[in-house]
Amino acid sequence: MKELDLYSEAKPRYYQLIPNREDGLILLALYQKYHSCALEIGELYNELRLSKSHETEEEKRVRIREISNEYDLVLRKYENHEPIDREKLMLNKYHYHGLNWFERFMGHMKYYFFVKLKYHILIWGPLILFLALNFTRIYAII
Question: Which structural domain, as residue segments, surrounds residue 103?
Answer without folding.
Answer: 81-142
